[in-house]
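To assess whether ligand presence alters the predicted conformation, the chain was also submitted together with 2-acetamido-2-deoxy-beta-D-glucopyranose. Input:
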Amino acid sequence: MLALAGALLLGQVLSQAVIPPNSKSSSTRLWSTSSGQYWNNSYLIGNGRLGAAVPGNIKSELVYINEDSFWSGQFIDRVNPDARSYMPEIQQLVRDGRVVEATNLADLAYTGTPLSARHYDTLATLEITLNHSAVMTNGSYERYLDVDDASAGVFYDINGTAYSREYIASNPAGVIAVRIASNTTGAVSLQARVRRAPDGSLNRFEDYSRRVGNDTMVMGGNDASSPGIPFSAGIRVVAKGGSVYAIGDTVIVDHADEAWLYLQSWTTYRKEDPEAAVLADLAAIEKPYPDIRAEHVADYQAYAHRVDLSFGNSTAAQRNMTTPQRVAAANSTFDPEFTSLFFQFGRYLLIASSRNGTLAANLQG
Ligand SMILES: *[C@@H]1O[C@H](CO)[C@@H](O)[C@H](O)[C@H]1NC(C)=O
Ligand SMILES: *[C@@H]1O[C@H](CO)[C@@H](O)[C@H](O)[C@H]1NC(C)=O
Ligand SMILES: *[C@@H]1O[C@H](CO)[C@@H](O)[C@H](O)[C@H]1NC(C)=O
Ligand SMILES: *[C@@H]1O[C@H](CO)[C@@H](O)[C@H](O)[C@H]1NC(C)=O
Ligand SMILES: *[C@@H]1O[C@H](CO)[C@@H](O)[C@H](O)[C@H]1NC(C)=O
Ligand SMILES: *[C@@H]1O[C@H](CO)[C@@H](O)[C@H](O)[C@H]1NC(C)=O
Ligand SMILES: *[C@@H]1O[C@H](CO)[C@@H](O)[C@H](O)[C@H]1NC(C)=O
Ligand SMILES: *[C@@H]1O[C@H](CO)[C@@H](O)[C@H](O)[C@H]1NC(C)=O
Ligand SMILES: *[C@@H]1O[C@H](CO)[C@@H](O)[C@H](O)[C@H]1NC(C)=O
Ligand SMILES: *[C@@H]1O[C@H](CO)[C@@H](O)[C@H](O)[C@H]1NC(C)=O
């Protein structure tokens, strides 16, 4: 086992089977038989600091990336300078029952200066374009979010080849990781890169976007305001079989058996040189994906498994439904396991968007 450990670095691990996820057999999954068209029906993952919304598109995947310190500008001190000195007067007005006057004074002395906080920005879009030439086999598609192990996944079949993708946001590893696999040798071919926004509207705020070596790309710049927050985001791709190379600012996987993609991002809120920090972190990833996944699951479950909530069993017909169907049906008929899932989904979102040392829980809105 020890002798093997050296050889098992990164791409050298054995493939796991690519089998239909059968999410209906799991009470801890949100799932659907169609991809998420919008941000609002994509599946969310997060490690407290980094978050992603995964639509689960087949050929042209666009994963929206958030970083908790990426706001529309630098820190501003909004504390009203007169708040402290007017506090006794406002308190006295309240004690005297002169609430309207207290409110009027508080409007002047207790509101932020400037009034509004900065707004939170989406950081980037991870584009993964799969090189599928044939169309999907009807009825084979499934995507899910499992709130028990904090993983999102996609499965489909194309002309007898099964494909799967798994997405995790690991707190211990500090990165978002994606596993792309198929059950046919050499069937994984794709292109990947990070852009500011899928519609191109924010790409003009990128200052650089380039490949680094043969397996990495990095981009970055500033948000739209002045003075803005410099940021950087990058990906590194590792594959088993086939080849990995880069052209321009795109990393390409050619006829691999399986590929793993790692995404890192930093802003100047935490790193003086975000680009250097992104590249150093990506280069330092040594553990194989299954190890990164196992650590992620253990770390997440240490929080998630603190609470168990059961309302009893759902019926076979209830379990058989996709999540959108269950949402509609639960409107009129009580669905016990779905109610527990709803509760655990809320806890999942909080664990995914807030950890010790991160900013307020704002990932993915
Ligand atoms: C989701 O977003 C789409 C596109 O913006 C919008 O049409 C739709 O109403 C939204 N759905 C919900 C439930 O908010
Ligand atoms: C589907 O697979 C069959 C059998 O392997 C092959 O002959 C055919 O060309 C494939 N179709 C497409 C559209 O790739
Ligand atoms: C999938 O079903 C649609 C209609 O429901 C049909 O037009 C299409 O050809 C089917 N595709 C395949 C690959 O069977
Ligand atoms: C791959 O999975 C598909 C089902 O999606 C199956 O039809 C096919 O036989 C499998 N191929 C191999 C090589 O296992
Ligand atoms: C990149 O790939 C080329 C061609 O396969 C190879 O010659 C070169 O050594 C690689 N460079 C790095 C940094 O891996
Ligand atoms: C991409 O797909 C085309 C067919 O659409 C095929 O000719 C080409 O070999 C594929 N490239 C890779 C790297 O799989
Ligand atoms: C019924 O629900 C209980 C918990 O409420 C669970 O332990 C048990 O496994 C469920 N039974 C089935 C058949 O799923
Ligand atoms: C489960 O759902 C499938 C697809 O909607 C349907 O064909 C099947 O009859 C359902 N089974 C049960 C037990 O409800
Ligand atoms: C649930 O019921 C309410 C009230 O009848 C209705 O307004 C709403 O659209 C329903 N929601 C779903 C998802 O069916
Ligand atoms: C949070 O992080 C701080 C600084 O690393 C540490 O001292 C503290 O023990 C942590 N708290 C928890 C609850 O993990």
